[in-house]
Amino acid sequence: MTGSPPVIVAENLTKEFRVAERGPGLLGALATLFTREHRIVRAVDGVSFEIPAGSRTAYIGANGAGKSTTIKMLTGIMTPTSGRCLVAGIEPYRERQRNARSIGVVFGQRSQLWWDLSVPDSFRILRRIYDIPEPVYRRNLRLYRELLDIDALGTTPVRQLSLGQRMRAEIAASLLHDPAVVFWDEPTIGLDMVLKEAVRVLVNRANQELGTTVVLTSHDIGDIAAICDSALVVDRGRVVHQGTIQDLLRTADRRSVTFDHRDPLPLPAACEEIERGLPGVRASEDDGGRIRVDYPVAAFTSRQVLAFLLDRFDLADCYAPEPDLEDVLRRVYERDATESASPDQPAAPVESGAA
Amino acid sequence: MSAVTRARRYLPFATGGLQSLLQYRSMFFVTGVTAAAGAAVTVFLWRAVYAGSPGAGPGGFTAAGITTYLLVAQVLQVLHANRVDDEVAAEVYRGDVAVMLVRPVSYPLVRFAACLPVVAANALLVGVPVLLLFSFLVPMTAPTAGNAALFALSTLLSVLIAFCVNLLTGMTGFLTTNTWGVRMLKQSVVAFFAGQLVPIALMPGPLAAVAMALPFRGMVDGPLTLLLGRYEGVAGALGVLAQQAGWAVALAALSAVLWRAATGRLEVLGG
């Protein structure tokens, strides 16, 4: 992803909403008949970032990042209060229709297909709207047939499809006109493992053959891991991390090891022994009756923890799961909160060699 | 980009709309029965009013003339029930309008294209059968060929006005969540000031003057004035058409301006 020119640029992007203030209860509701008080809410607070062309980026953000609002500005639905953004050189909200030709969108909660029509009928309409050339249309349909089993959806009206079936069609529809950028806004993909893999292959193909840029916002860590190669973490208007997902995981400050052993020692006693032997470590029973050891990477290396366990227990099995992306993100946000609370204190380095 | 290319892009919304519509065939039957029942009540009521006057009764209508007026008014009302107000209001309220805005098309034009099959289907599947049915039951005035042609043209303009009125009604969804109330209000105002409930010719002077100046007049009273030949010379007929065309253009311009303003400050779509 280095070297590619940015296809998306956001400069100090800000969006404020006016929200009607309403008192609690019936009296409060009645009061709004006579007075209207408004409060300004900043959904997007001065965000600046660049997304390189041809990347598959997860747009991850906490407070003030306003993921969906940012997507709405990038797709031209909303106009920023201040700042600006560019998608493939166009300011989307100024030239909405021109921008719409070069982007594809999936809004997880809304369907862009024709509710009463079948998926093939919806695609035929999209073909006309986007003036998709015959060879492109044929090629993409063949691809969807092969990867997404789109033919299985047949002539069923979209309203009668299951969520997974609909999501497949939505994803295909967003790629049908070979857009330069696709935005998938919380597509809650609802697909099983096989189809998730198919979507991944589809995106990879579009990505490699056409250089399609993918921007995904999601709460589902699984979706992010399956589709994206890089992450853009925005908090309070600042980019706190931009790089590969692997790099992001490496910033985890806690690791864990889960193991089972053949010693007759009862579980609470085993946990106590670990916590005594490795101060600062937390040992607890996991769902499967095994022992889970969480340790801060600042205090112990994986080697120290494993050596201790091998020394004390007759291990039956043992594995070290990937650091939890959710944990990493929570940590990123928390660090940010403490930093802004005490600006004169230098932030502790979170990077560590343990991987 | 040429106008033809642009228009072609909206055609699929019309054909798609027709396809969707055909899934709900029984709906037309229900609309037809409702329209026929409504027409029956008003027609027999007004025929009783005119029963005592053998020649021209109140407002210069004959019994057959008022029957024709009320029946065609009912059909025009069915024609104007293009559902644009319901659908725009619902899409704005639910935020589905966002999906429309990520497409390379103008939303008001999409709505116009999508309502054409509804209007055509209402005309063919409800309007014509209801008129035919009543033509066997009660005496009606047969229009001259010229008046029928003027009526057809005027009806097309009335469809444009009805589209704009319904689009503007639906767009109140940006301001209020209670679009149901607004739609009810619109329906009553249109029914009254269009001359659908009571012909404008029968209204007291000042009220009639107000009704004649409003755009709603072009929805029912305008076409019927031409159908029944209740105008004075060519100038009179052109006057009716010109007023309709003027309102259609004005309302379309108003819709475009308000639509631009509304989307410019679009907020209520959820985070």
Please give a structural write-up:
The complex is a heterodimer of chains A (355) and B (271). By secondary structure, chain A is an alpha/beta fold. Chain A has 2 domains: 6-249, P-loop containing nucleotide triphosphate hydrolases (Rossmann fold, 3-Layer(aba) Sandwich); 253-319, Alpha-Beta Plaits (2-Layer Sandwich). Chain A has 12 helices and 13 strands. In chain A, the strands form 3 sheets. In chain A, strands 5-6-7-3-8-9 form a 6-stranded mixed beta sheet, sandwiched between helices. The model of chain A is unreliable at 341-355 (pLDDT under 50). With 271 residues, chain B is mainly alpha-helical. The model of chain B has no long low-confidence stretch (mean pLDDT 88). Chain B contains 11 helices and no strands. The two termini of chain B are 35 Å apart. The interface between A and B is medium-sized, with 36 and 29 residues.
Give a nutshell description of this structure:
The complex is a heterodimer of chains A (355) and B (271). Chain A has 355 residues and is an alpha/beta fold.
What is the C-alpha radius of gyration of chain A, as a whole number of Å?
25 Å
- Please state the oligomeric state of the protein chains shown: heterodimer
Described by strand count, sense and barrel closure, the largest sheet of chain B is: none
Largest sheet of chain A: 6 strands, mixed
In helices, the fraction of residues of chain A equals 25-40%
- Domains of chain A, number: 2
Structural class of chain B: mainly alpha
Coarse morphology of chain B: globular
What is the tally of helical segments of chain A? 12
Helix % of chain B is over 70%
DSSP, total strands of chain A: 13
The Cα radius of gyration of chain B reads 20 Å
Average pLDDT value of chain A? Answer: 82
With strands numbered from the N-terminus, the spatial order across the biggest sheet of chain A is 5-6-7-3-8-9
Q: Superfamily at the CATH H level of the largest domain in chain A? A: P-loop containing nucleotide triphosphate hydrolases
State the secondary-structure class of chain A. Answer: alpha/beta
Keywords (chain B): Membrane, Transmembrane, Transmembrane helix
Pfam families (chain B): ABC2_membrane_6
InterPro entries (chain B): ABC-2_transporter-like (IPR010390)
Organism (chain B): Streptomyces alfalfae
